[in-house]
């Protein structure tokens, strides 16, 4: 199911949570809404589900205008952050709920409902736990029941709100792989909300990076990581270091010295240089960024070095292999291998 | 001295202090027992003794006299009326209470805190006043008096008035019990149910009601106890016609004023027994489903 979000605006008591957001979701893709808290990602998901009504704008499911359809009519599978399992029902009853509440005309016979629920239980690898109550399950198991329950109604689209937010790191990693697997097998169009960029980068076909009620960038994980559209995305996705620079003669300058990075398309004046801390090369001579080592600590397999560059008050971080001899030096000269320059002073 | 100075550096297990088991929040022994003594004496004098007296007085002239006092048709009528009034007002308050709690807990709207205050009004206003209000509304000289008289409807000094007064007085019990519980449970389960295609009605019966059932039962018990025991408001609207508009509490007063102590206490013992049964159920509920009553545990 293709979903088109068109100029959606949502205000909560005059405060805009979403500002004219438009987004095309392709059929069968696994797409992540990623952003810091308050960016409007959950609001967007709930608007697609019909759990909120937009202040203005439209939402299309395929060619059908779903903007004013009720939640029930939209037929979406929604997985809630806190699972929202029915605590008075067993796992099996939870999963079959959506089929049992159908009007008689479209309700499958009881045996069929049971068979389908057991099948889904098998899909989420919880066979044998059908008589348990939600309180008797671990967090990861509850999450899987919630997903099976959402899948039971054969939804047109699967919506997940911070699906792994309440789980510990190990379970989270495992469930991530498993969700990817389920998506590949069932082929549902899936939208999930997360604030965990690693989760988004690993799981999604495409990312929607949001901040302050706006979409900052939409693209594949590689596009977003390699070619961030603006300073916010660069800073939010992955590790980043940034430094104010001057553009002059189509070159970047720091503290009155050229640093050996060309800037053929940027206008002369103030600019901001962004690069990944691990994406740097050390240089022995020639134009480079030179910094005094202010601090250095080992983080697992790398050594993170904080440098003071060109009298700039904030320290710049670069990563070296933990046993690299340069880690012992007091001055390091380096050049980013890949970088981005955004014109204008830092905002 | 020695211990204070060296203990920090000493790696050997430190000598066990004499006060090891005393928790820091505990008082000294004599203070503790004095306080407990005062509390127990107070409880015995104010609460336990009166309860015992009710039963002692009821059975003072023997078991036979005790049961004979219920043979009086007027007393039987009082018992019947009390049960009838409770049977009408408790279910009505159950519906009102659930509706009010639903409204307050699941929706945001203008004037919500005013509504909550209004629900509490019967707790803060004197029952006599609430009875009087109904007399002013529906009594012969009241606002609707002439209209009611013209249509032959009796409210004051009749059963409808007693039911109205009882509903008013017992209104908060169920709503107050459910509001915090439902607020704590939030709307997540309901959202899940409708996202799975359930209608509002199905959501209420299959999801919301099971989530609040023990809290609801608890509220009904308290509501029922009060409905049967209410004196003040009912007294104003009833008219005290023995055998017709007298409930059990009113009957007790009349019997007592007539110096018919055994009958008065016999009737009182019934009400007290009812209270004890309510307490028992309440305790069982609290023991068994305490977490669902207080709503402290989620999912």
Strand content of chain B: under 5%
Please mark out the parts of chain B with pLDDT under 50 across 5 or more consecutive residues, or reply none: 1-8, 295-299
Portion in strands of chain A: 35-45%
Shape of chain A: elongated
User: Could you spell the SSE succession of chain B in H and E letters?
Assistant: HHHHHHHHHHHHH
Order of helices and strands of chain A: EEEHEEHEHHHEHEHEEHHEEEEEEEEEE
Largest sheet of chain B: none
Tell the overall outline of chain B: globular
Structural class of chain A: alpha+beta
Kindly report the greatest chain-chain contact and the residue count on each side.
Answer: A-B, 28 and 18 residues
Task: Provide the helix percentage of chain B.
Answer: over 70%
Which structural class is indicated by helix and strand composition of chain B? mainly alpha
The biggest beta sheet of chain A, please? 6 strands, mixed
Q: Cα-atom Rg of chain B, whole angstroms?
A: 26 Å
Low-confidence stretches of chain A: none
Explain this structure to me?
The complex is a heterodimer of chains A (347) and B (299). Chain A starts with a strand and ends with a strand. In chain A, strand 9 and strand 10 form a beta hairpin. Chain A has a six-stranded mixed β-sheet, sandwiched between helices. Chain A is of the alpha+beta class and 347 residues long. In chain A, 25% of the residues lie in helices and 36% in strands. By secondary structure, chain B is an all-alpha fold. Chain B contains 13 helices and no strands. Chain B has helices at residues 2-6, 29-58, 62-68, 73-106, 112-124, 127-138, 145-150, 159-185, 188-195, 200-229, 232-238, 248-257, 261-294. The relative contact order of chain B is 0.13. Mean pLDDT of chain B is 83; it is low at 1-8 and 295-299. The chains are: A alpha+beta (347), B mainly alpha (299). Chains A and B meet through strand 6 and helix 5 of A and helix 9 and helix 10 of B.
């Amino acid at each position: 199911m293709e979903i088109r979000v068109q100029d959606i605006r949502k205000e909560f008591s005059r405060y805009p949570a979403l500002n004219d957001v438009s987004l095309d979701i392709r059929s069968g893709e696994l797409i992540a809404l990623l952003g810091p808290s308050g960016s409007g990602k959950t609001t967007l998901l709930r608007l697609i589900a019909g759990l909120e009504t937009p202040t203005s704008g439209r939402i299309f499911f395929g060619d059908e205008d779903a903007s004013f359809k009720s939640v029930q009519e939209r037929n979406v599978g929604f997985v809630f952050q806190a699972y929202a399992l029915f605590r008075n029902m067993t796992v099996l009853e939870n999963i079959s709920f959506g089929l049992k509440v159908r009007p008689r005309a479209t309700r499958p016979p009881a045996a069929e409902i049971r068979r389908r629920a057991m099948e889904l239980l098998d899909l989420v690898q919880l066979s044998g736990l059908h008589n348990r109550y939600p309180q008797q399950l671990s967090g990861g198991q509850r999450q899987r029941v919630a997903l099976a329950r959402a899948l039971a109604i054969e939804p047109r689209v699967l919506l997940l709100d911070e699906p792994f937010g309440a789980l510990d790191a190990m379970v989270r990693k495992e469930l991530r792989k498993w969700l990817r697997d389920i998506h590949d097998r069932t082929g549902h169009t899936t939208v999930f909300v997360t604030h965990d960029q690693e989760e988004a980068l690993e799981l999604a076909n495409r990312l929607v990076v949001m901040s302050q009620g706006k979409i900052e960038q939409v693209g594949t994980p590689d596009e977003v990581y390699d070619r961030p559209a603006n300073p916010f995305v660069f800073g939010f996705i992955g590790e980043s270091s940034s430094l104010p620079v001057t553009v002059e003669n189509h070159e970047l300058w720091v503290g009155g010295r050229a640093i050996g990075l060309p800037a053929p398309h940027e206008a002369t004046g103030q600019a901001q240089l962004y690069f990944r801390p691990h994406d740097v090369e050390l240089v022995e001579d020639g134009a480079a960024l030179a910094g005094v080592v202010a601090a250095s600590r080992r983080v697992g397999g790398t050594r993170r070095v904080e440098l003071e560059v060109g009298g700039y008050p904030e320290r710049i971080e670069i990563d070296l292999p933990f046993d690299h001899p340069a880690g012992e030096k007091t001055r390091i000269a380096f050049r980013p291998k890949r970088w981005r320059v955004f014109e204008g002073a830092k905002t | 001295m020695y211990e204070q100075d060296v203990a920090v550096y000493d790696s050997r297990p430190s000598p066990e202090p004499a006060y090891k088991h005393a928790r820091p929040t505990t008082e000294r022994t004599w203070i503790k027992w004095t306080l407990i003594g005062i509390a127990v004496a107070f409880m015995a004098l104010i609460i336990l003794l009166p309860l015992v007296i009710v039963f002692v007085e009821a059975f003072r002239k023997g078991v036979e006299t005790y049961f004979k006092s219920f043979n009086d048709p007027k007393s039987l009528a009082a018992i019947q009326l009390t049960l009838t009034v409770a049977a009408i007002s408790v279910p009505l308050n159950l519906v009102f209470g659930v509706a009010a709690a639903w409204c307050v807990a699941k929706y945001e709207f203008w004037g919500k805190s005013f509504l909550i205050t209004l629900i509490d009004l019967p707790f803060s206003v004197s029952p006599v006043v609430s009875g009087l209000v109904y007399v002013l509304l529906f009594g012969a000289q009241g606002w609707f008096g002439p209209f009611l008289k013209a249509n032959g409807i009796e409210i004051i000094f009749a059963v409808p008035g007693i039911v109205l007064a009882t509903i008013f007085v017992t209104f908060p019990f169920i709503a107050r019990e459910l509001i915090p519980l439902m607020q704590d449970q939030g709307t997540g389960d309901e959202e899940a149910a409708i996202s799975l295609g359930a209608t509002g009605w199905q959501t209420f019966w299959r999801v919301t009601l099971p989530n609040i059932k023990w809290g609801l039962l608890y509220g009904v018990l308290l509501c029922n106890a009060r409905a049967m025991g209410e004196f003040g408001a009912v007294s104003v609207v009833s008219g005290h016609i023995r055998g017709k508009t007298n409930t059990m509490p009113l009957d007790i007063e009349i019997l007592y004023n007539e110096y018919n102590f055994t009958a008065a206490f016999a009737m009182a013992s019934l009400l007290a027994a009812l209270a004890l049964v309510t307490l028992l159920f309440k305790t069982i509920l609290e023991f068994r489903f305490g977490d669902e009553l207080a709503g402290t545990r989620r999912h």
